[in-house]
Structures are given as structure tokens and as C-alpha cells.
Amino acid sequence: MFLTISTTGTPERPATDLGFLLHKHPDKAQAFSTSHGTAHVLYPEASVERCTVALLLEVDPVALVRRGKGKGRGGAPDAALAQYVNDRPYAASSLLAVALSTVFKSALRGVCKALPERAAEPLPLRIEVPAVPARGGAELVGSLFGPLGWTTVDVRPVALDEAFPAWGESRYVQLVLEGELRLADALRQLYVLLPVLDDAKHYWVAPDEVEKLLRAGEGWLAEHPERQLITSRYLSRRWGLTREATNRLELVRLAEADDIDVEAIDNAVENPAPESDDAPAETALTPETAAAAKKPVPLAEQRRDAILTALRDAGAASVLDLGCGQGQLVHALLKDVRFTKVVGVDVSVRALTVAARRLKVERMSERQAERVTLMQSSLTYTDKRLGGHDAAVLSEVIEHLDLPRLPALEYAVFGAARPATVVVTTPNVEYNVRWETLPAGHVRHRDHRFEWTRAEFRAWAEKVASRHGYTVRYVPVGPDDPEVGPPTQMAVFTATGTRKPARTATSAQTATTTTVKEEKAA
Fold this sequence. Notes:
The chain is built from 21 helices and 14 strands. The chain has helices spanning 17-22, 61-68, 72-75, 94-103, 105-108, 116-119, 137-145, 183-198, 208-216, 227-234, 239-258, 262-265, 287-292, 299-314, 328-334, 349-359, 366-369, 406-417, 454-468, 507-512, 516-521, and strands spanning 2-8, 30-34, 37-46, 50-59, 123-133, 152-159, 169-181, 318-322, 341-346, 372-376, 391-395, 421-427, 470-477, 488-495. The two termini are 36 Å apart.
């Protein structure tokens, strides 16, 4: 296997800086042992104006077969002779990708202590790979490299035999890439896309391959139009790993769209995980109730009971729990047979994983599993999968959004999804003075972007109802203090002039969401 990387330069910025970036001296020919052969690094040319590095990988076919142990592409051929006579030593594949990561490890990370500024800036690059297996043809090669900033993606199919043109083209292409990119970005693209084009890997794909893919795909994979194909092929079509990578890449895409950190989005799970967001004293009871009860009822439980009552009064059968977190409300809904379809939605993959564990989906009967769905989605983007449900719940969710993002949620829920009933709960900031452990002026949870007074909440709810064709009523949750009101305020929106709640989920809803069985398989 063979590839070359070339760059040009000037006396002020010589092309031989490539040697510093790759941590390989142009005056030396070096050899490195890999698990399947020897990788050689040499410089066919090295001058101020132009510098070219070549990576030559000599594959040991015997070692490849022995390490394969009869499994995988290199060890399970159609005929015994093919174990030793195949394209592995010649065509760029995962073998070459592994050699790249081994020989140019620091360059892949963009690390160069000698010339850090050069490592951080684009270089005029030309990469040539004489033989690339392309399952999907030249068109697929172009669709993979085209969106990545290369000015030229030259893909030339290799004939089966030049002496016999009638035989047509082989599945191999000659690939030339030209453009101005950071060297680290170019190497990462090759590391991911060479095995993707080959659509095979010479080693077992373990769960840690997801981390490798995300590291190498940082900055380009999340927004790539062929992201799904790349992820699936890179992970050898292992469904569970592919779904995990896809979900995490979606978080990256959402974070980049909102110009925030991924951790700020995927923050629905804390350690230890609180029962609710109302961190100060969760036992808001009237003096009479507290005296009569041996154990105070947590506010989170009172809130769930109020939500369940509102949903039952509305006659809802199909319910969306938007921002379901760790699944407490989903669990409560499943206990009531009146709710025939329960969909938990959260942007956090970690929260959905915890929810699946809490619900014990692996032990559910088939009938019970058909009632529940967990899926990842951002509530500030319209999602057609959220349509067609009787009711939606936003329990302690809106206060976690920045105020400028709130109109997007309003439209996604009330405008696009438009369930017949929407239940919204949020803290009443006026009640905060009753929390003895909460310092004055502090919100109840460090992730709350705002907390509203009763007047502010009602003003917002009235505007939403008027704008989207709903009526709204208000229900206090917890002790209704005569001076500061209840600790939690709840609004129940009812759509005007819409269908009555359906008693079963439609087949379209079932077909377009990820079932708990799929969560179990992951």
C-alpha cells in the first residue's frame, strides 16, 4: 500500500516544514513495525519549494491470515489460496489507516511543539493514493471527500486489465486530493474514509471504535451529508455501535448549531442524580399534612400526581414526555393502563440510557414494550415524529432553556406537533423565599436559565395559547402559600377545534420512532 502527501512553500515558509509537522526528518528513511507488516516513511523530494512524504506499507500476508484466525475479510476468503493471494498488500484499506495512526500519531492530533502555528493553519496539500477500493464507485468517493474542503477530488477508475478494455472497470480507483487544509484534518479524513470506501476492516470492531470515530471526525463528521453511511461502514454495520455514534454526533451538531458545548446539552444526568430539579428541600407540604403524615411526600411526587391527574382528565391515551430525563414520569405513566402509548424524548443520550435501565426494558413483556418508546430529539427543532399524540408534558423543562430559544420550543411543540393537551410545569420563583437552604437571589438548580413569578408565567402562557389556538388553565402544585403561591406552577393547555384524543397510537407513530426493543438491543 502506498500514499504520498505533498506541499509547496516559500523561503519564508519552506515546504520542508512538513517534516516538523509529521515528526519525521526528510533526510532519513524510517521503518515502523505494525501488527500486519512494516511501514516505511521516506521523502522522494524535500526542498524549500516542494516537499513530498511517502508512506509505504508492506503487508505480511501470512501474519494477516494468522491474526485473522479464520475470521474477517483477511481470514475468511472464498478459497484457500485467497488467504495469501488477495488485494490486501496493495489497495488502501483499514490496514493503511492503522499505519497512518501509528506512524503519524502526533500529526493526527495536530500537535507540533516545534511549529505549533504551522500545525494550526491550512497548508496547500496534494494527497495521492494509487489504489483505493471503492465499494460504491467513483461517485461515492466524490460524495465523501467533496464536502470536506478539497478544491480538487480527482477520482479515476482503474481498468480490470488495460489490455482488455471490454472487461470494464475494477472496483479500484486512483485518488488525488488537492486543497488547503490543516494537515491533521486531512490525516483524520483519510483515517476514517479509507476503511469506509473499502467497506471492510481487518480487525474486530469493538465498542472503543466509537470513540476513535468521534475523535477522528471532530470538526467535520457531524455535519457531513453522508454521516450515516460513514458511521455505519466505519463500525462494520454493527447496529448498536452505529446508533450510539449517530446519537453522539447529533449532540455535536446541535451544540455547534447553538454555539455551545456538548456538555451543556447532554446535562440531563448528574452524579448523584437528583429526583428533581428542585434541589432545596423537596418536601413542600402544608402544616396539617406534615403533621398527619409520617413521611413527607416529595414535591417531585406531588408534581407527577398533578400531571397524571391532568392527563386523565383530558382523556389522553398517547403521551409525549418531552425532556423525560431519567424516566420517572414515563415509569409512572406506564403503571396506568389508560396510557396506551408513552414516548420519552430527551436530547441527552446518557439520560435515555439511564431511563431504559430504570424502566427495566430488558425484562418487559412484549405487550408492555410496545407501549413505550424512548427517542433522542431536540425540543427546539421541529420533529415530525412528535406529531399525532394526544398530550405532551413539559415538566421542569422550559427553565433550562435560554430565553431566546424559548420561541423555537413553543413552535416545535404547540405549532408543529400540536397535541390536544399540553401540560407545562415550572418553578415559582416567588416561593424560593420559603426554602431555608436556598441563598437569597439564587435559582433552585444551577442549570436554570430563569425562574418566573406567577404573573410572568401566566403572561407567557396566555401569549402561547393565543398564538397557537389553545385555552389555558392553571393548577397549583404543592402547598399554595397565601403570600407567595405554590412551589410549582402548572399550566394545562387545551387545543381549540381539534380532534378528540385517540385511544391508540397510529401505525405511523410506531413506524417512525425508536422502540424500547431497539434501546434494549443497543
